[in-house]
Amino acid sequence: MTRFYSIRFRLTATFIAIILAVMIIISFFLYTTLERYYINNFADTLERSGFLAAEFVAGHLRGQVDSVRLSALAENMSRQSQARVIFLDQQGMVVGDSMRVGGLLNQTLDNPEVAAALNGSVSSSTGFSERVQQPVMQIAVPVQDGDGNILGVVFLSASLEEVERILNDIRRFLFLATVLAMGIVGGGSIALARRFTGPLEKVTAAARKMAEGKLDQHIEISSGDEIGRLANQFNIMAKRLNYYTSNLKKFAADVAHEVRTPLTTMGLLTKALKEHEMEQEQQKDFINDLDNELERLTALVNDLLELSKLEKNEIELEEIEMNHFLRDMLGEYQYRFIHAGLELLDEITTETCLVNAAPLQMRQVVSNLLDNALNYTPSGGTIKVVLQREEEEAVTIVEDTGCGIPEEDLNYIFERFFRVDRARSREGGGTGLGLAIVSEIIAKHGGRVWVESEEGVGSKFYFALPLAESQDVMKS
Ligand code: ADP
User: Fold this and answer.
1) Which of the listed residues 372, 410, 452 should we mutate to test ligand 1's pocket, taking the one with most ligand atoms within 8 A of CB?
2) CB of 413 closer than 6 A to ligand 1?
3) What is the pLDDT of residues 294-308, one digit of tens each?
4) Cβ distance 325 to 354 under 8 Å?
5) Domain 215-313 sits in CATH 3.30.1330.10
6) Model confidence pLDDT, tens digit, residues 411-449
7) Quick check: CB of 299 below 6 Å from ligand 1?
8) Pocket flag, ligand 1, residue 405 (CB < 6 Å)
9) Model-level pTM greater than 0.70?
10) Would you say domain 5-166 falls under CATH 3.30.450.20?
């Protein structure tokens, strides 16, 4: 049943129907024109023969009429004009007939054409002759003397068999041309439809496989037309979907792995506390360790929640003055820097840097970067926070003189759970999600984030947000 709804079937059927209609119309006009042409031509020839005969026979119809001679004349003319030739006198009596045996000699011919000719006019008709069992054309031409007096009539009756044969040939030719045209158009449209539907079937098959869960699909189509573009978009979609699902799987495995480590430690600590007698001091240390692991787990869960919130929610933007905002945050962090033995340099511009941002998320970005700077910079180091206004962006830089990041890791630094030194990160309470959160928040704000770093020298984390005024210009 679906065969009949397929594009291939419908396209072919439509083309065939169109060509059939066109051929029928063309054939109809062509045939009627040719039919008229042949009949008229035949009638003209017959009429000319009639006039010639009338001219010739005029002398013979005056005075005494010689039927034998006239019949011989009629027979002669009949051979030339391929028609039966009959001569009639003024009374409509046959005085000469090319058909000797069974002819109409000495009989009256009661016929409307003859009656019209006796009144001086030429007329013709077509009909079916019972006698010869053929279609015939009859014509009657008046025979007149020089003064216009009617002397008699020349009556010609010719078989239309030849014309019928030609018209039959034309009909057959038109029928064959129609069948041939339908065949060619049908074949062509099947090939055309296959060209269109072939790639579509490839797309359908690939989509079906994707629906079955086989996401790794790629369609090989080289054409640059609409279907080629559809296939191309499909390939991009499949690739992206594939990337997302494998990322999701990797992420789930990473989460499980991250959760398992503190859980195992906590399990071991609890078991030790339960099963071993220990000093109160030692017990306190164990409980402290337990608390630390719990804190790490809580931090991890919080960061995961933060990430999932980021994926779901639309952010609510407010106008934030970045220089005030950063200065306030540095004020909050000041004691932690002093405590860690780090020098804090403030190079925040005094120019107004208004951005549209969600304040809580901006806090998270800045605190993640400052926490990292604190964690990965040894005591005695320097941390510089810069804010500068560029053409259409407010660029914030958190620069440290810490351990830096190896060049080969720079590309992965914003990925979830990526850490250069796992142990060191855990020591500082890191979850490996801080920079991923930074990157997603900044992306949600339409900004950019990047890093420059040299191992053993220090790191520079940049994030750029579009200035509110440039966004207003774009909107207006
Ligand atoms: P973590 O919680 O481990 O700090 P992040 O996503 O914040 O996770 O950072 C990922 C990794 O990037 C860190 O584990 C660390 O190896 C490296 N990193 C981040 N910030 C710095 C920095 N300022 N200096 C050196 N390395 C850094």
Assistant:
1) 372
2) yes
3) 998 998 999 898 888
4) no
5) no
6) 999 999 888 887 777 777 788 999 999 999 999 999 999
7) no
8) yes
9) no
10) yes
